[in-house]
Amino acid sequence: MLEKLTDLLGKENVLTAPEDLIPYSFDGTATFRVMPAAVAFPRTTEQVSACVKLACETNTPIITRGSGTGLSGGTVPSEGAVILCLVHMTEIIAVDPANLTLRAQSGAITLKIDEAAAVHGLFYPPDPGSMKISTIGGNVAENSGGLRGLKYGVTRDYVMALTVVLTDGTIATFGNACVKDVAGYSMKDLFIGSEGTLGIITEVLLKLLPRPAARRTMLATFASMEAAAETVSAIIAARIIPCTLEFLDQMTIRCVEDYTKMGLPTECAALLLIETDGHPAAVADEADKMAAIARSHGALEFSTAANEAESLRLASARRSAFSALARVRPTTILEDVTVPRSHLAEMVTFIAKTAADYKLTVGTFGHMGDGNLHPTFLTDERNADEMHRVHLALDAIVTKTLSLGGTITGEHGVGLAKKPWLRQQLGDASLNLMLQLKQTLDPRNLLNPGKIFN
User: Fold this and answer.
1) Strand order of the sheet with strand 214-222?
2) CA 9 to chain centroid
3) Which H or E element spans position 162?
4) pLDDT tens, 170-189?
5) How far apart are CA 231 and CA 272, in angstroms?
6) Sign of the dihedral through C-alpha 337, 343, 348, 350
7) E strands in 310-448
């Protein structure tokens, strides 16, 4: 397999030395590590197809990887697997302003896609926290969310077509540039969020939107996490859908401030980062209404960014939350449970109580506007007793989430990290249907084996 890969791609595009393979033995989750047999860097769909055909000939597992920013262990290799790393497939092939679409290879960086759209007065709304480095193919494979998910939705809502290499090396295209198309099954939706277990996404056609004419960014601080959560619920109940409605607890605020020196209010128990966009009159109206709601729910302060630079500074504070928390302890375990928004206050309180009960350090932040919380365990994987308590606490949080009608993962995917709880959420019938799909499309279990399913 390795000899044929080298013949196909060139020696410079195949890594086999142990010291070169170490960075590819884990992803952003960091708690799962397995060394791959090799890492290959194809540059075209045809090369990906040829690599998959080689894998079939030699019965070699294939793991598809982009920038490795995933947070569920989804790109951690299995024993003897070859990683196909698509980071050289970066071409933004075309922007079509007439049809509001953009076509790109799957290794294109998410932020670069939005920047290419901006040249034409358009924008690509999904903005995962890792958008400066994550690839669009990885976003599609994980159905990534982001800070703007509350108003604009997630990656799935912007995928119009995909080019996919199937498990036998066949190249297939699903979807097209038509706004309406109900011919047959919606096959592209089967591959969105499939985490590389059904096929390898090599090219995407994305829907773009007109760039909003105005935007306003606000910051509200609170004396309790519950007051912040209740404010979010009240904003949604008032039929206001802001672009961004983000939450940081005091632990996270202090870590971010220590990391960025932005002058954040570290004495408050929680803060909300709120952003509204659209027509200038609508933006002004929504901002005034949200300010009134926040104050009526006990906001200590409510301020508005004075200019675009300050807006970007506040947004970057939220985007740096994971990095800031990761500096505190040797091991950082970032979760992403999601509950219906009406249960936000209850869930935030439960997470804090669980952390105290198990004597753990947990910082919580997240996309509170869509119910997606990120309880982040700051721990040390070398401490067996502490890790045992982490697993007990996580199980309690997941169980509580499901009891409230929530989901074990809102945007990170199942991968290795969440698969112990998948059956608990889905039930036997739904999970068994997924297993049948996997067996049908990948009968030899060569594509990202061991992920999603126990």
Assistant:
1) 301-304, 214-222, 270-278, 244-249, 361-367, 372-379, 331-334
2) 30
3) strand 159-165
4) 999 999 999 999 999 999 99
5) 9
6) negative
7) 331-334, 361-367, 372-379
- Angle 250-260/308-319 helices, nearest 10 degrees? 120
User: pLDDT tens digits for 78-129?
Assistant: 999 999 999 999 999 999 999 999 999 999 999 999 999 999 999 999 999 8
pLDDT digits (tens, 9 = 90+) for 355-374: 999 999 999 999 988 999 99
Cα–Cα distance measured from residue 50 to residue 105, given in angstroms and rounded to the nearest whole number: 17
Query: Phi then psi for 276, rounded to 5 degrees?
Result: -120, 145
* DSSP per-residue codes, 225-256: HHHHHHHHHHHHHTT---SEEEEEEHHHHHHH
Residue closest to 406 by CA, chosen among 362, 342, 358: 342
d(CA 195, CA 414): 8
* Total count of domains within the chain: 4
Average pLDDT over residues 210-236: 94
How many CA atoms does the CB half-sphere of 37 hold within 13 Å? Answer: 14
In a domain, 451, yes or no: no
Can you give the pLDDT at residue 342?
87
Tell me what pLDDT residue 438 has.
98
Q: What is the mean pLDDT of the chain?
A: 95
pLDDT score for 341: 87
* Boundary of a domain, candidates 259, 288, 323: 323
Q: What is the DSSP letter of 338?
A: B
Average pLDDT rounded to a whole number, residues 240-249: 94
**Residue 390 belongs to domain with CATH number:** 3.30.70.2740
Predicted confidence (pLDDT) per residue in 15-62, tens digit = 999 999 999 999 998 789 999 999 999 999 999 999 999 999 999 999
| Domain coverage including residue 55 | 2-85
212 alpha-carbon distance from chain centroid: 23
* CATH code assigned at 203: 3.30.465.10
- The answer to the question of residue 73 being in a domain is yes
How are the residues of the chain apportioned to helix, strand and coil, as percentages rounded to the nearest 5? 40, 20, 40
